Predict the 3D structure of the following.
Amino acid sequence: MWTCPTCHRTFKNTNQDHSCAVTDIESHFFNKDQEVKATFEKLYRKVSTFGPFTLNSVRHAILFTAVSHFLAVKPKRKWLDIEFVLPYPMEGFPIHKTVQAGKNKWAHFMRLESEEEVDGMLIGWLQEAYAVSQ
């Protein structure tokens, strides 16, 4: 693991490209609907049961990191955009976009509009994303 001497975040690769624009987590929820914060809090509680990880708040996202990032959360005014990486592609609702991010890595994009969408199916995918980030 490599620690950036400027922002003090840790990364899998030495001199890994990143932004040092670290911010406060609460700033992501300024002028957002209350449901957005409640959905994030439920997501955080569920993910916290997986094992150790760090939470990094950068300019445009809140990053959940084990050895590497396994979940990015981008609070919008009325919803959360989330991105997670799995070793295979999935398509169809509720995934609205899938992008190949490496030889054996696919980034999956979803939009969460309420706490109820933090369900067993999503948590299963995030547990798998956490496991492959180790």
